[in-house]
TrEMBL record:
InterPro entries: ECM-enzyme_regulator, Peptidase_M11, S_mold_repeat. Residues 208-389 form the Peptidase M11 gametolysin domain. It comes from Ditylum brightwellii. It comes from the Eukaryota. Residues 126-164 are annotated as: Disordered. Pfam families: Dicty_CTDC (PF00526), Peptidase_M11 (PF05548). This is Peptidase M11 gametolysin domain-containing protein.
Length: 695
């Protein structure tokens, strides 16, 4: 049982959740009434959408009372829709259907569905209702390849490559929507009744990329948290391609932002429908010069607040390449980073009863302002992103002979190159039974995480996985504190995680000790002074003291004696042992031998074949005249008979002996090399194998 934690009282933040009944209007209105559905087969790519919900007063509400599920939608095949990238609401499939879906990659064909589309707008999407009797063919069964010159192309793999990467350079295309009911009014002015985006294209470009001096942007924060491993740049930053050169010459494009006019009025239109219209209009601009919105690794759409957002500040595919922002939040760095976190595959970070309430992580909901917060990600998400993999530590308490004892540093000191590989760690993953593991991280307020205002400078223990799933903060441990989990991983023992001490320096660190309590208690070890003070009473480890750190390290002892003819093993009590290998391959038609430098060899005996096998039981030894007369089933020319002990009683020195071999039989004795007159029970069974050579 995990020790209970008090629920955190939150005074201010942006995010809350709405009743499930109002979530659907984030993307699509109900178009089934007043329109006639068309029954047809439907092919589409499946996506999962994660919205960031806000209230006007920006106060978090209790998620025990309200909440939302991810929204699953279909991006309909362009050959059916008439335009690429058009989303549809999806109804008639249960959660089980999505169990094996790779969102953004999996393609599905529904053999029978009804498609509803609004009459007033082409390519605005609609609703797909799947018939219960429909077959449902996912990619891998049909529709996964298409023919190009030179052969077949795996479309699933092609879509997978288009997902937003966790490392590298991501060129971001910003689609600045200008709807019909905005034009003619005072552009970029809230006095127009929020019919237009409230900021200029250049303002949004500056908030995203710092093109006009903004120092706290989505680009700067990803760059700082990853130390340049993931960089966001404006679309067509490199205008060396002919297509980008043409786009750069477009008066409606600058610094990665493309102004996209649509004819439709969007006041009150659901955001998903409005985004579909912007996507289609953007492609009509880009296609003539050989580009599309999918030519870029990621794209975001900005639309006026007059669109029906269903309470969302923004939403994004998880994972995927698309996001959409309400204009009044599209310049908020924290909202941008949160949604792009969804694009690279991360869900939410929870604490207590709120699935967004871990504010030490950008996938929670820290207080999002225009220039903040400067926060990175929690343990599971950091491990998933992989930026700190050289400073990861995997620890399995149940199957490890030793506890973990080490120093955790914050992301800031890692980014400043003050951490040392093998000495310092950014994330420790603790394996446990079940689908989730525990992740331990030092929540240091410094550098890219200097905006953290949630359990500052404590050691955080978060439960989650390495695939971007929902995470939950389990404990926050101040210096000198501990967190204990009883009956850990199905064991009767308690896992104890101790924050032994914290020191400032280069780097700042928290010394952490993790061990299973065997009933004697778990205490932070004293600082070691030499290797002898690190004795763990295990003969199979090499115990080393780091005098500089005062921490013991225990590495597995290598028992290899360099002799290929020995089996090298280690016992924790006695240490290494080296037993001579018999090299017996169980084949009587080979000669088994061993060379120290090479190992075992098995040379075949020419013209050798096993012809008969049999067993004979001897109740005494040759000292008492006991023998067994064997008759062969067949007659052989010059047979060779081999006999060996199969079962013996006790450890007496006896061995079988074959004599009087003829073409039809032989005699088997038990001989005693030590002549000690062993009892009749000494050897109870001898197995005999017959072999013959051809002449």
């Amino acid at each position: 049982m995990k020790i209970s934690l008090p629920k955190l009282a939150l005074s201010s933040a942006l995010l809350c959740t709405l009743p499930r009944s109002s979530i659907g209007s984030i993307l699509f209105d109900d178009v089934t009434s007043g329109t006639t559905g068309v029954e047809t087969s439907v092919g589409c790519i499946l996506h999962e959408v994660e919205p960031l919900i806000v209230t006007d007063d920006h106060v978090v509400v209790d998620e025990n009372e309200v909440g939302h599920d991810p929204i699953r939608i279909c991006e309909r095949d362009a050959t059916e829709e008439g335009a690429p990238g058009i989303m549809y609401d999806l109804e008639g499939v249960g959660n089980d259907f999505f169990a094996d879906v790779e969102f953004g990659v999996t393609h599905v064909v529904f053999s029978k569905a009804t498609v509803y589309e609004p009459d007033e707008a082409n390519h605005s999407g609609g609703k797909i209702i799947v018939d219960p009797a429909s077959t449902r063919t996912k990619s891998g069964e049909e529709a996964t390849t298409r023919r190009l010159r030179g052969g077949m192309v795996d479309e699933s793999e092609e879509r997978r490559r288009r997902l937003s990467p966790k490392e590298g350079v991501t060129d971001l295309l910003v689609l600045y929507g200008i709807p019909g009911d905005c034009r003619g009014g005072p552009d970029y002015n809230t006095t127009s009744g929020n019919l237009c985006n409230i900021r200029t294209p250049s303002f949004y470009a500056d908030s995203l990329f710092g093109t006009n001096g903004d120092l706290k942007t989505v680009a700067s924060q990803f760059n700082a948290c990853s130390k340049g491993k993931l960089q966001y740049v404006p679309a067509c930053s490199d205008a060396s391609s002919a297509e980008c050169a043409q786009l750069d010459s477009n008066v409606l494009f600058a610094n990665g932002v493309l102004e996209v006019k649509i004819d439709n009025n969007v006041i009150g239109m659901a955001s998903g429908s409005a985004v579909n219209l912007v996507t289609t209009a953007a492609n009509s601009i880009l296609n003539p010069i050989g580009l599309s919105v999918t030519s870029f690794k990621q794209h975001m759409v900005i639309l006026p607040d007059s669109v029906s957002w269903g309470g969302a500040a923004a939403w994004a595919y998880r994972p995927g390449t698309q996001s959409a922002f309400r204009s009044s939040y599209a310049d908020h760095m924290g909202v941008q980073v949160h949604e792009f976190g969804h694009n690279v595959g991360l869900l939410h970070s929870g604490y207590g009863t709120g699935s967004y309430n871990d504010h030490s992580c950008m996938q929670g909901n820290p207080s999002y302002g225009n220039n903040g917060p400067e926060v990175c990600w929690n343990g599971p998400n950091s491990y998933t992103l992989g930026w700190y993999k050289d400073y990861h530590k995997d620890f399995d308490p149940v199957n490890s002979n030793d506890p973990f004892h080490g120093r955790l540093v914050g992301v800031g000191d890692w980014a400043d190159d003050e951490a040392v590989v093998g000495t310092h760690y950014v994330v420790v993953k603790i394996s446990q039974s079940g689908s989730n593991d525990l992740f331990v991280m030092y929540n240091r307020v410094e550098g890219p995480t200097k905006g953290v205002n949630f359990f500052k400078n404590e050691v955080m223990v978060v439960e989650g996985g390495t695939d971007g799933r929902q995470t939950w903060l389990q404990s926050h441990i101040p210096a000198g504190g501990e967190y204990a989990i009883e009956n850990f991983s199905g064991q009767s023992r308690t896992l104890v995680i101790k924050n032994c001490r914290q020191e400032a320096g280069a780097p700042d660190y928290s010394e952490v000790y993790i061990a299973l309590d065997d009933g004697t208690g778990v205490e932070c070890p004293a600082e070691c002074t030499d290797d002898d003070s690190c004795d763990d009473n295990d003969m199979c480890t090499v115990n080393t003291c780091s005098a500089e750190l005062g921490i013991c390290t225990f590495t597995d002892l290598v028992c290899d004696d360099g002799d290929a003819c020995t089996d090298d093993v280690c016992d924790p009590i006695t240490g290494c042992s080296h037993t001579k290998s018999t090299c017996d391959d169980g084949d009587v038609c080979t000669v088994d031998s061993c060379v120290a430098e090479v190992g075992c060899s098995h040379e075949s005996i020419p013209n050798c074949a096993v012809m008969e096998t049999g067993q004979v039981e001897l109740t005494d030894t040759i000292d008492l005249g006991v023998k067994a007369q064997i008759e062969f089933t067949h007659t052989y020319n010059d047979p060779v008979v081999v006999a060996f002990i199969n079962t013996r009683n006790g450890d007496a020195s006896v061995s079988p002996r074959v004599k009087d071999v003829t073409s039809t039989g032989c005699t088997i004795y038990m001989q005693e090399p030590d002549h000690q007159n062993h009892s009749p029970e000494t050897v109870s069974l001898c197995q005999m194998t017959l072999v013959f050579r051809l002449h």
